[in-house]
Design a protein that fits this description.
alpha+beta, 8 helices, about 270 residues, 6-stranded mixed beta sheet, globular, about 25% helix
């Protein structure tokens, strides 16, 4: 069975419910993980997702900010929680779908100053990574586990538009790259987007609203990720190579999110 797993920071699910419906109609995801839904559980447009064929929902909402959700064509089972946000924000939600444990994250952006002592937001971001890495290190790497979402780090030199410049900017500083590398190493996670589109190809999933034409300015960052354990390697590569992509065309739709969806297919 093909399990198409998608992640998308929608920057308000109520504002972009119609876009979500269009994306689902065009790309037929089986599991759609959303970040920055910016609503509480009771405000989530459930009927819209039922109508688009994703009736099974796991929602962690928060008034006005943050918030994550999993919408699935297939039934959801409970997953062991990964409560790693020290501020108690709605930044993670998990579920088991078709035997695959999925955790959907919206990791803090970290503010503007890359200094733990002077910037509490940056300290929170690194603390989030450290707690998550410690939790995952206790897991079995051969178990089928996917970590997806807006992880707010562009880890590689070709995941940013200008490596030298961005190395001083939050999202691509050396300490953040090191934190994400530790997370990836914790269970030997496989970066499916990079497996599908290897270095040195430039890849991005986020482009600032400041640019009138995001393609022309082309100052993108790859902040959205689908990472799977070695336990899912066979499922991810059963067709011979990883079937994963950034749907950058969605960023060009009318009134878009600043993030594009990212998808990967597993044959489970």
């Amino acid at each position: 069975m093909r399990l198409r797993l998608c992640t998308w920071n929608v920057n308000s699910v109520r504002l972009r419910a119609e876009q979500a419906a269009r994306f689902v109609a065009e790309q037929a995801p089986d599991v759609l993980c959303l970040q920055e839904i910016k609503c509480r559980e009771g405000e989530f447009p459930r009927q819209t997702f039922i109508d688009m064929g994703l009736p099974h929902l796991a929602i962690s909402g928060q008034k006005g900010w943050h918030g994550v959700a999993i919408a699935s064509r297939l039934p959801l089972e409970d997953a062991p929680p990964l409560e790693v946000c020290r501020e108690g924000h709605a930044r993670c939600v998990g579920a088991v779908v078709a035997g695959v444990e999925i955790h959907n994250f919206y990791i803090p952006a970290g503010g503007d100053v890359a200094d733990r002592q002077t910037n509490p937001k940056f300290d929170h971001k690194l603390d989030f990574y450290e707690k998550l890495t410690a939790e995952l290190s206790r897991r079995d790497p051969n178990a089928p586990l996917a970590i997806v979402g807006d992880l707010n780090v562009a880890p590689g030199e070709n995941d940013v538009w200008n490596h030298k410049y961005m190395s001083k900017i939050v999202s691509h500083t050396p300490v953040e790259i090191e934190a994400m590398a530790a997370l990836t190493a914790s269970l030997g996670f496989i970066d499916l987007i990079r497996e599908a589109r290897p270095e040195p190809e430039k890849l991005a999933s986020w482009w600032s609203y400041r640019a009138q034409d995001f393609r022309q300015s082309n100052r993108g960052l790859r902040l959205d990720h689908i990472l799977v354990t070695p336990g899912l390697r066979e499922a991810a590569f059963r067709l011979g190579s990883a079937a994963a992509r950034v749907h950058d065309d969605v960023r060009a739709w009318e009134r878009p999110s600043d993030h594009a969806p990212v998808s990967a297919d597993l044959i489970v």
